[in-house]
Design a protein that fits this description.
With 449 residues, the protein is an alpha/beta fold. It has helices at 4-7, 20-29, 32-44, 90-102, 113-125, 139-154, 171-176, 180-183, 215-227, 247-260, 281-285, 331-346, 349-370, 397-409, 432-447, and strands spanning 58-62, 65-68, 73-76, 132-136, 158-162, 193-196, 230-236, 263-267, 291-294, 306-310, 374-380, 383-388, 412-413, 415-417, 421-424. 40% of the residues lie in helices and 16% in strands. The radius of gyration is 22 Å and the shape is globular. Pyridoxal-5'-phosphate (PLP) binds next to helix 6.
């Protein structure tokens, strides 16, 4: 067996699971029983970056809250982005229980009412003619299906995706993704997966600075022209790092793809289904991709289901296996997804995200006025991000981590990204008073920095 450290493979310093700050938090907050459970977890699970060793042990979650085994409640502003409708929504519980009682599984070659209803619903609510779909047990698999279908439809195999992006942790999706943590030290990746810079003004290699001049969009056209045989551009419409491209960016990429006959695949796995203020984020941009991938929250904050939505004329995989997943028409998963969409619609959660999100961003901008370390506040709907920088302009990574654990100690859970970005993604069902108490917690943490 190879010793990772001795092998010279990269050890990622950014792994918050290994930091002294985290160890200090655990020492202060966890009792002997919780520690024993964490040790047992570490004893039986294979270790992996970003997931282990674990931070704490959960006993329950409901609505916007997590509850740990010591009975502490945390507002969950991360939720792995599965919790658009909060945890344990009664409509999802009911739908899952009914499907479970009636038809717990659907053997391949058969179909069922739950899967058909979900497929019809997705065709109805999706923009343009994204009327065909396939389901998968996770986002990475759904992205994988999209790329396979793009290859089948175009007869080409190359993809253009963005540096720093994330599309899943399988071997093919890490090839599309642009984060070193996932790509490095794992050997050859999928051939033909080319990358271009993301629309991220503050780290723009074209020197855009604070405002985007969209040279990066023009560069996509340059690469498509030079490569010549690209099947698809694959990208997240917006990113959890608070990367919200200007509206013209996606319009320009859409028209470049049209001009070059390249398919556009948008990944809205974490932020589709209402979070950004419309059911699908591409609607905010006024464009329709050729394929749209959703997942995470589709399972109602509980179950694993993702979907590839494709243009009707891309139904070209008849002679191939596009997905072929055991759970591709699982009635229980489909029932959960259908109930989730119905909740988002009936509770007007997309509009709620837009309205609450605007007020939340205002409050975060107030925080920025009071705490100079907050360099930037970005967001769309209930996806918000604070970038922290020191007065010398350097990224305030240690400070971001400190704020994260200080907030956790006060009952607010969230994640940092890229080291110095605090990402805040509450459920869309959150009570406004809870949203406000989160900003108060943040305020107190920044004051104590
Ligand atoms: C943008 C994006 N794409 C794809 C995925 C992969 O989804 P899954 O973890 O369900 O495979 C994720 C997961 O975090 C994601 O954030």
């Amino acid at each position: 067996m190879r010793d990772l450290e001795a092998s010279g493979m990269p050890q990622f310093e950014g792994d918050v699971n290994l930091s002294p700050e985290r160890a200090a938090w655990q020492r202060e907050h966890l009792n002997a029983e919780t520690r024993a459970l964490l040790e047992e977890d570490a004893r039986y699970f294979l270790h992996q970056s970003l997931s282990s060793p674990c931070l704490n042990v959960l006993a329950a979650c409901e609505g916007s809250f997590l509850v740990d085994t010591q009975g502490r409640r945390y507002l969950d502003f991360h939720g792995n982005n599965v919790h658009q409708i909060g945890f344990g929504h009664p409509k999802v519980r009911e739908a899952v229980a009914a499907a479970m009682a009636q038809l717990p599984f659907c053997t391949r070659r058969y179909t069922n009412r739950y899967a058909i209803d979900l497929a019809r619903k997705l065709a109805t609510i999706s923009p343009g003619n994204l009327n065909k779909c396939l389901f998968a047990p996770g986002g990475a698999e759904a992205i994988s299906m999209a790329v396979k279908l793009a290859r089948m439809a175009t007869g080409r195999f190359k993809t253009i995706s963005l540096w720093d992006s994330f599309h899943g942790a399988t071997l093919d999706t890490i090839s599309l993704g642009g984060e070193a943590l996932f790509r490095s030290g794992i050997g050859p990746l999928m051939p033909g997966a080319e990358h271009v810079p993301p629309p991220e003004p503050q780290r723009c290699p074209f020197g855009c600075g604070r405002s985007c001049t969209m040279k990066c969009a023009d560069y996509v056209e340059y690469v498509l022209e030079r490569e010549g045989d690209v099947a698809a551009v694959v990208a997240e419409t917006v990113r959890s790092t608070g990367t919200i491209p200007p509206q013209d960016y996606w319009r320009r990429i859409r028209s470049i793809c049209d001009r070059r006959s390249v398919l556009l695949i948008l990944d809205e796995i974490p932020h589709g289904l209402g979070r950004t203020g419309s059911m699908f984020t591409c609607e905010y941009y006024g464009i329709v991709p050729d394929m749209l991938v959703i997942g995470k929250g589709l399972g109602g904050g509980s179950l694993p289901i993702a979907a590839l939505l494709a243009r009707e004329d891309l139904d070209v995989g008849r002679q191939h296996a596009v997905g072929h997943f055991t759970h591709e028409k699982n009635p229980v998963l489909c029932a959960a997804a259908l109930a989730t969409i119905e909740v988002i619609e009936s509770e007007g959660l997309a509009r709620r995200a837009a309205e609450l999100g605007a007020r939340f961003l205002d409050r975060l901008r107030d925080l920025q006025m009071r705490h100079s370390i907050i360099d930037d506040v970005r967001g769309l709907g209930l996806l918000a991000a604070l970038t922290l920088r020191r007065s010398d302009g350097s990224p305030a990574e240690a400070e971001a981590e400190h704020i994260m654990y200080a907030a956790l100690g006060r009952g607010l859970s969230f994640k940092t990204s890229m080291g110095n970005v605090i990402v805040l993604t509450p459920p869309l069902t959150i009570e406004e008073r809870d949203l406000n108490s989160a900003t108060e917690i943040l305020d107190a943490c920044f004051t104590g920095l």
